[in-house]
Design goal:
InterPro entries: MORN
Number of strands: 16
Radius of gyration: 20 Å
Pfam families: MORN (PF02493)
GO cellular component, one term: membrane
Number of helices: 0
Keywords: Repeat
Order of helices and strands: EEEEEEEEEEEEEEEE
Protein name: MORN repeat-containing protein
Strand order of the largest sheet: 1-2-3-4-5-6-7-10-11-12-13-14-15-16
Number of domains: 2
Oligomer: single chain
Length: about 170
């Protein structure tokens, strides 16, 4: 997708954070086709709806890496970046919930399935296997300033063989 910057319906706006948007607006919100360039040089070209990346687009990082993707931003500000299969998340991509929980990893038919990383707002981090959106298989859960459990998981519970290491002073 290439933005035609000389289109008369496009406007350019610079922001105090160093970002620049060239594209269509609905009121003060990005809406329609547009290109946003962050101050670090990262670029998104594609569809916008009510100020949010939604639909097909192209991400370009300063390193030159390009990724054609689809964004789905829900009304509650949850964001999914990746590919869809029958309107379900299906790929190895990232989802950010409005409560700031982040998952990056494999999706199959709308469920976190395969390898991934989940980080909660508390700083707790799980890295390992998921099945139908459960912590399920082999994985490591790190609770910030507390302990690390590495072992087997079944339906969100640590089950089977594992090891706990307590962090900090005892």
């Amino acid at each position: 997708m290439k933005i035609v910057e000389d289109d008369e319906s496009f406007k350019e706006k610079s922001y105090s954070n160093g970002g620049v948007y060239i594209g269509k607006f609905k009121g003060k919100l990005f809406h329609g086709i547009g290109k946003y360039t962050w101050s670090n040089g990262t670029i998104y070209e594609g569809d916008w709806v009510d100020g949010k990346r939604t639909g097909k687009g192209l991400m370009i990082w300063p390193s030159g890496i390009k990724y054609e993707c689809e964004f789905l931003t829900k009304l509650n500000d949850d964001v999914y970046v990746g590919k869809f299969n029958r309107k379900l998340f299906h790929d190895n991509k990232k989802y950010k919930w409005s409560n700031r929980t982040i998952y990056e990893g494999d999706w199959v038919d709308g469920a976190m399935t395969g390898k991934g990383v989940m980080i909660w707002p508390s700083g707790t981090k799980y890295e390992g296997e998921f099945y139908e959106s459960y912590l399920h298989g082999r994985g490591t859960l790190t609770r910030e300033n507390s302990c690390v459990y590495t072992g087997d998981w079944r339906m969100d519970a640590n089950r089977g063989i594992g090891q706990v290491v307590h962090l900090g002073s005892v």
